Amino acid sequence: MNIIKTLIRDLFSPIASILGVFLTLYFGIFYVPSYIEETKNEKIARMNESLIDRIQEIVYNNKNIDEEFIETMIKGLELKSRTKYPFSTKELLTQSQESFMNNRFISIQERFKYFNQIQKLKESIRENSVKNEIKKSEINFLSLISTILSVIITILSTLGIFLKNKKNKEMEIESELIKTSDEIKESIINAVEFENRIGDLLHKLSSTIEKPTSQERGYDFLVNFNNHKYYIEVKATRDPITLPMIEQIIGRLRNLDGNLILISNKRLTQTAEKFIQNFNKLNEQKFISIVGNDIDEIEDKLREI
Questions:
Q1: Which Pfam families does this entry report, sorted A to Z (predicted)?
Q2: Are residues 26 and 114 in the same domain?
Q3: Which of 132, 159, 168, 239 has an alpha carbon within 20 to 30 A of 230's alpha carbon?
């Protein structure tokens, strides 16, 4: 269950983080500026419709209207909606003319009449160069800021994911090292404890026992059973005894004047057992394997030798 949880975490957590980064980038660069632009365009459309309606109403009622009046109306709507009106006064009047000409509820003569009134007003006003300049140089700073912030957030998020994954990997490695170190320590302690227990057992079974002062001798104990020498190697491992381990033991001990005994807490692999059988068939020196964790069981096997 823990393996599945770890697998899910390792697979889906980075994917979710990366997806979050891409969504942030998408919303910041595409969605948010687009939404802001649409909102702005809707405000402008409402402003434009309101201005055209007002101008038509004034012209239709034969009231005087001038450039200053129109600019005041535009400024008032800009303040109210907090949005810059993008069209010049002449452009607004042109749209009003077009709206009059499309109004089928009044006669064609009246349409031309109002059209010409607005045309005279257009010809009387100067070109609004300031408005055109604003229109040409207008930049949606909110969209720009949103895009910049999104890019910065994306970079920081990506860096955060990288640093987090790096930290998690370092913690996993450190955890594995600690776990491995603890396992090695536990294995050494168990091996020493197992060897000491075997040593006590051999003292009990043999009046003659020798423990070499150096590991270079290649064995742990030398005992005498029924006037025969036995060189004993004690192995406490976490895994089965393999053929290379048997070959290593025999390579160290085969030139000694006595038989060989391996006492281990783990079973031998089939290949290792077959090698021992062949060795015993071909050599006068014998190799005896005793496997067990229970000291009484090991004692019984030693007494059978």
A1: Mrr_cat (PF04471)
A2: yes
A3: 239
Q: What is the pLDDT of residue 137?
A: 45
For residue 127, give its domain range: 2-153
- The answer to the question of residue 180 being in a domain is no
| DSSP-assigned states of every residue in 221-266 | EEEEETTEEEEEEEE--SSPBPHHHHHHHHHHHTTSSSEEEEEESS
Q: Is 242 domain-assigned? A: yes
pLDDT in tens, 233-275: 999 988 899 999 999 999 888 888 899 999 999 999 999 999 9
Domain-located, residue 123? yes
Q: Could you report the per-residue pLDDT of 174-200, keeping only the tens digit for each?
A: 777 777 666 666 667 788 899 999 999
Query: Are residues 199 and 259 part of one domain?
Result: yes
Look up the pTM and report it.
Answer: 0.44
CA distances from 26 to 20, 141, 268 (A): 10, 18, 62
Number of domains, the chain: 2
Per the rule left: phi > 0, alpha: psi between -120 and 50, beta: everything else, 244 is: alpha
